[in-house]
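Quick one, tokens below:
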């Protein structure tokens, strides 16, 4: 997948969609993935959060890794904040509540191992 971009409009993911933030890639840490827009809320609710699932896997297990899921209200690199972190070298599936309108994965660090795949499901 392309890296985080300030020039390309982000793809929107709806409930039930699964997208690849990294797809069998070997990015150089620290590297952010392409960003995805989440649909707007309809109606007024007190809790404006969405449950997001994200899954991390590796072609070969690294000896150490730090991958984060980030979210932002406005799509600007400086606005993204970490909402969840994975350091599991075997990969894992995680769920988190996200309040932002945009999400992306970021490979903070990786020692050894193979290519990384990160999927995000709204």
């Amino acid at each position: 997948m392309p890296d985080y971009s300030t020039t390309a409009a982000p793809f929107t993911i709806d409930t039930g969609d699964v997208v690849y933030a990294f797809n069998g890639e070997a990015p150089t840490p620290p590297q952010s993935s392409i960003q995805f827009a989440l649909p707007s809320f309809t109606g007024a609710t007190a809790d404006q959060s969405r449950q997001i699932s994200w899954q991390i896997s590796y072609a070969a297990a690294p000896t150490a890794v730090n991958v984060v899921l980030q979210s932002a209200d406005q799509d600007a690199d400086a606005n993204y904040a970490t909402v969840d972190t994975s350091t599991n070298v075997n990969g894992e599936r995680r769920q988190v509540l996200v309040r932002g309108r945009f999400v992306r994965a970021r490979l903070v660090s990786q020692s050894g191992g193979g290519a990384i795949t990160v999927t995000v499901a709204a």
